[in-house]
Sequence to fold (208 residues):
Amino acid sequence: MTWGVYGGFLAMMVVLAVAPGPDSMVVLKNALSGGARGGAWACAGIAVANFLQGSAAALGLGAVITNSRPIFETVKWLGVAYLCYLGFQALRGAWRGDYQAIADAMRGRQSAFRRWREGFLSNVTNPKVLVLYLSVLPQFLTPGVTTTGDALLLAYTVAAVGAVWQIMLLLLVHRVRGWLERRRVRRALDGVTGTVLIGFGVGLALEA
Fold:
């Protein structure tokens, strides 16, 4: 694989990473409710899920999942349910608006794992992530020339670019945290985040 081919792939992944998607919304949701640390745990969960899905695609396991309609549909509807669940959580927070009580309740020892789990499950139950790997990676791989190592490099590049973008999003949220902590602003952002997450879930459900 040449540097030119890799550079083209990297540029495409940067564009896809910055486009609004469920991963960014989940990071934003956790950053708003748990600060930079909460958002970072969600980022870690997403990164692990991306790593696993990328490995599956590069090693040929992803094609088995997407070609098996029952498995693919199961993953799809799990993803729909989980995105809608996260969306309703955000909308409930916007409706109640009692953020101090919520913050006190979330200070338990299991909070970090819960945020990691949200990131992980929102990504790993989204079949569109696996389909992305399977549709984009082959365009940059030449049968008989490129190796499994090349496929893994591209797959892990996707995960790395996504992680970098999410960290940048966290830094942005941290810089304007004082403004975001205003009750009216926070309620509006939770409302938008929840609506977008549910929208992603509905969009996923409507896809054939």
User: Anything to note?
Assistant: The radius of gyration is 18 Å.
